[in-house]
Structures are given as C-alpha cells and as structure tokens.
Amino acid sequence: MGSKSGAPLPGEDLGLCVAAVSRGDAPSVDDSTSVELNATRFRALGDPTRLRVVQELAAGTRCVCELRERVEVSGPLLSHHLAVLRECGIVTATRRGRWIDNTLDHDALSGLRELIAAQGAGADR
Domains, the chain, ranges and CATH? Predict the structure, then answer.
C-alpha cells in the first residue's frame, strides 16, 4: 500500500489504520494483510459488472453460461471479472465436466459486513 516513499497513493483510505493507531494498538502484520485483502475486495465490488455478478451468485451457484445470459456481457469480459472476484476470494470456481460453476464465498462477504458494522459502531462512540 502506498508509494515507494511510504506516502499513501491518491485515493487510498487510511481510516482503518488511523483508527487502530489512535486506539493505541498499532496494526500487526496480520492486521495489515487483512486490511489489504479487505481493500482489494471492496475495490473488486466497486465495479458495476462485478457487483451484478455477485448479486446473481447470491441466489446460488451458477455456471458461466448462466451468468453470461443474466449479466449480459461478452464471454471474455465475464471471464475477466470472474477472475478478479476469484483472486480476491469473493468467488470460488469448481469444474464440473465442461462447465465451471461459480459460487459466492459467503465467509468473505461476512468479513466485509463485519468490518463495516465495526466501523459504524466505532463512529457511534
């Protein structure tokens, strides 16, 4: 995270790190890794096409052909968006013969929900 000099890049939000330091508990390596992963997941969900894919997968596992019909994007573009979602752990893929079934990782999304709830609770203080 940040530039080579350690300064944040434009658009980076350091709110989570600042909140941890202000409470007196500097982030550990695990916290830093978790923050990076969550930031990557939020960025992935910031794309409208990927958000539509996640909404479709919230209803259950779907093969690529079903997603292509429902999300209405080309095959190569859908493959790109699914790869981004898989890389950050939001979606898992399982091969079933010629088909690849995509499933939402509910634990990953629960982690994001808990993070948002914790930040909201911290704002109430």
Answer: 27-123 (1.10.10.10)
* C-alpha–C-alpha distance, residues 17 and 15, integer Å: 6
**What would the pLDDT profile of 4-60 be if each residue is shown by its tens digit?**
444 333 333 333 333 333 334 433 345 667 888 989 999 999 999 999 999 999 999
Prediction pTM value: 0.68
What HEC string does the chain produce? CCCCCCCCCCCCCCHHHHHHHHCCCCCCHHHHHHHHHHHHHHHHHCCHHHHHHHHHHCCCCEEHHHHHHHHCCCHHHHHHHHHHHHHCCCEEEEEECCEEEEEECHHHHHHHHHHHHHHHHHHCC
- Token pair of 121 as six digits: 């609770």
d(CA 70, CA 56): 8
